[in-house]
Amino acid sequence: MRETHRHGIGRRHFLYGAAAVAAGVMGTGCTPEDAQGASGSGGEPVIAIDAQRRSFKVSPYMTGVNGAKWYDDAYGMWDSEHNRPAPGIVGKIKKSGIGMIRYPGGTSSNLFNWKGAIGPQEDRTRQVEGKQGATVDSRFGPDEYMAFIRQVGATPEIMAPFAGSTPDEIADWVAYMNAPQGTKWGDLRARNGHPEPYGVRYWEIGNELFGAHQRYWMSADDDKAMRQYAFGGTQRQKRQRVGTPTDHRPAASVSNGQPHQTFTVWYPPVVPKSQTIRVGDTTWHEVARLASAGADDRVYTFEPSSGTIHFGDGRHGKIPEKGLKITADYDSGPHDGFVEYYTKMKAVDPSIDVLAVWAPIEAGKLAGGKSFPELLEEHGHADKYDGMAIHPYTNFQRDLKATSFPDKRAGHDYQMLGDAAGAKMVADLTALVKKHGKDEAYVAVSECGALFFGGERDSDAYPRYSFAMSHALYMASQWARFADLGVRWTASNDLIGEKPGLSRTLFGGAPTFVRTPDAIVREQLSDFFHGGGHVVNSEVKSNTDVSTRETPLGSSYEALVTTATVDKDGTLNVLVVNRSPDKDLKSRVELGSFRHTGTVDVSVVAGRTYDDFNNDEHPDAVTIKKSHTTAKGDSLNWTFTAHSVTLLRFPPESN
Predict the structure, then answer these.
(1) Cross-strand pairs, 571
(2) Residue 140 near residue 182, CB atoms below 8 Å
(3) Using CA atoms, how far apart are residues 472 and 62, in angstroms rounded to an integer?
(4) Coil, strand or helix: which one is 29?
(5) What mean pLDDT do residues 384-411 have?
(6) Which of 210, 333, 404, 568 is 20 to 30 Å from 73 by CA-CA measure?
(7) What span, in angstroms and rounded, lies between the C-alpha atoms of 391 and 401?
(8) Secondary structure letter of residue 394 according to DSSP
(9) What pLDDT shows up at residue 22?
(10) Strand 78-79 to strand 84-85: parallel, antiparallel, or no bridges (unpaired)?
(11) What is the pLDDT of residue 325?
């Protein structure tokens, strides 16, 4: 593929910039020679800015968020009784500058049925929750989501489920959201009270389907599953519990001993005659009609398209004995793959972006082997995706081999160590997309954060790590690095959690929705990401290292992470994250040829300690502190407080 230029940066510069981000030398587009330079006096760090060297356009969607689950009124975010956002949440989201909200969510939404979540509430269906298989409500559907989006002023992004959908169903969803009146789906939307198209541009297909516990109908073999995601196929299911269209819990597969019981396999359609249905350990047999069966015949009828199993009434076909589990072996499929989803969705609305999600991660890096971009190029479909969405989480157990925090300081350090690894994952995927995809294809981040997965039981030494100042520092570092890599949009954490929880969320649970330090930093950086300008070259010379215990991700990390932008009005913004848990750092900010007024607007977010946090009792323990200073000439000497996020804004000198 030829060398390309997007937002003013070519492939050669991008590839070095990616390596620099991974190594900790911030500044997209800088060259190895640029990384050399004198340190500050006494070996102090120097933050060097070259405002003339622009790269990517600043994205206003960098500080997006993964939406709360759609069920249970989105964990109390939606007031279904009055059909409006819950009191108190709209202003806090606006204040926090959230540019994008992902819907309907992540793993829990992999089996979401959008058609069951529109129209009058009394006509809506129940849903299968994609992680536990539980049956949940559909009150917060696509129309409620868009009403919420419009009130908070955010941009929508939809995760369209893959595992239980078809390309036609998702193309219909695109039409419902974006088609004008005078069309089938535009008219239905209007009858539901929303005559104007919503104009949803950003779509991704599936959530973490590469994960061992999110394969659904697909193969357990990684390479085969990637091909099935790309091109579709058929896959044998073995000893799988049956259920209903709205319930995949174990109890839904158990006979209640009543006549005329109906069950469905989990992942229709089914290849005709491929199924083996067992009641307990006994295989029953398919018949064309139950009416011709005897009272003791172990038989059923079967509908391959829906995967529906009908049992008899004790006169025509035996009733499955109460308490026995019903299981099925069957060939699930044929299913279509991403290419067909992409083709049909773009046929409905060519202006949308449809992103693929097959970007597996292993041990703190992008997984090896053939990648999704390589696979599509190999089959002549390099133009059949607009980008890729990745989830570059820092998973403490997977990436750092940690099953607990040895102490509170480790809970802070592990997050900082994971930051550079997460950025490298994004850089590596971006390089693959640029090499094997079409020129305008890009990478987005639709989930990220630093977590112990599977509960908080392993974080006793620092139980509040996921919503304390440490995590805000981690996220600010990620945003800085992602900006330098040209990431188009980022959704991180969850918007809110179950009442009254704070863990892994941007806001505490209803009804108070307390703002975490993560939310406070987003407010601080709102102008930074909404300034409409470009990222410019920045780097830290003679950075200070913070030593840690030995880990698979190293034994030290850079104290300072930085990026810089120039707004469309000419203001220079310098973002500096000091991740040191206990050291203020004196630094010199070198402005190069940038000419400014001499007055600098300063904002700082820093708790009293790195583990400081906000809660209902102390909602303002972490806040933004604003001030002004003066700078003369081409530099500013500044002390960056320990465990802080600092934004320096230099208005341009008038011409």
Answers:
(1) none
(2) no
(3) 14
(4) coil
(5) 96
(6) 210
(7) 19
(8) E
(9) 45
(10) antiparallel
(11) 98
Residue 229's closest CA among 366, 359, 346, 336?
336
How far is it, in rounded angstroms, from Cα 418 to Cα 536?
A: 25
> Whose structure tokens read 């990401």?
529
The values of phi and psi at residue 387, to 5°, are 175, -175
3-state helix, strand, coil in the chain (%, to 5): 25, 30, 45
Above 80 in pLDDT, residue 31? no
Give the model's pLDDT for residue 497. Answer: 81
Measured CA to CA, the distance from residue 608 to residue 625 in angstroms comes to: 13
Say if CB 445 and CB 490 are below 8 A apart: yes
- The percent of residues in the chain predicted with pLDDT above 90, rounded, is 88
Residue scoring higher pLDDT (317 or 27): 317
From residue 545, alpha-carbon distances to 43, 560, 563, 615 in Å are: 12, 9, 18, 32
Q: Is the Cβ–Cβ distance between 229 and 162 less than 8 Å?
A: yes
Q: Which residue, 531, 237, 235, 211, is CA-closest to 398?
A: 211
CA angle, 545 then 551 then 554, to 5°: 40
Token readout for 224 is 């085969």
Q: Look up residue 282 and give its two tokens.
A: 């006994």
Token reading at 9: 């940066």
Residue closest to 577 by CA, chosen among 605, 547, 550, 552: 605
Residue 184 has a CB neighbour count (10 Å cut-off) of 11
Type of residue numbered 108: S
The 8-class DSSP code of residue 284 comes to E
Which 3 state secondary structure label does DSSP give 164?
Answer: coil
Cα separation, 241 vs 446, whole angstroms? 31
Residue 456: per-residue pLDDT:
56
What is the β-pairing status of strands 554-558 and 100-103? unpaired
In tens, the pLDDT along 85-113 reads: 998 999 999 999 999 999 999 999 999 99
Burial of 263 (0-12, 13-18, 19+ CB in 10 A): buried
Both structure tokens of 190? 């209007």
* Beta pairing class for 635-640 and 585-590: antiparallel
CA nearest 77: which of 5, 147, 134? 147
Rounded Cα–Cα distance for residues 622 and 521 (Å): 10
454: pLDDT confidence band, cut at 50, 70 and 90? low
Given a cut of 50, is residue 6 above it in pLDDT? no
pLDDT band for position 453 (cuts 50, 70, 90): confident
C-alpha 128/C-alpha 459 separation (Å) is: 31
Secondary structure class of 432 (helix, strand, coil): helix
DSSP per-residue string spanning 321-345 = PTT-BEEEEEEEEEE--HHHHHHHH
Tokens of 447: 């989930």
Burial class of residue 324 in the structure, from the number of CB atoms within 10 Å of its CB (0-12 exposed, 13-18 middle, 19+ buried)? middle
CB atoms within 10 A of CB 507: 28
In terms of DSSP H, where are the helices of 43-120?
A: 71-76, 89-95
pLDDT above 70 (res 535): yes
**366 contact partners, CB below 8 Å, separation of at least 6:** 359, 360, 424, 425, 428, 429
- State how beta strands 308-311 and 299-303 pair: antiparallel
Residue 616 corresponds to which tokens in the numbers above?
């209902």
Residue 2: per-residue pLDDT? 31
Rounded Cα–Cα distance for residues 479 and 86 (Å)? 29
Mean pLDDT within 292-318 = 98
pLDDT in tens, 308-367: 999 999 999 999 999 999 999 999 999 999 999 999 999 999 999 999 999 999 999 999
CB 459 within 8 Å of CB 414: no
Report residue 508 as tokens: 């505490």
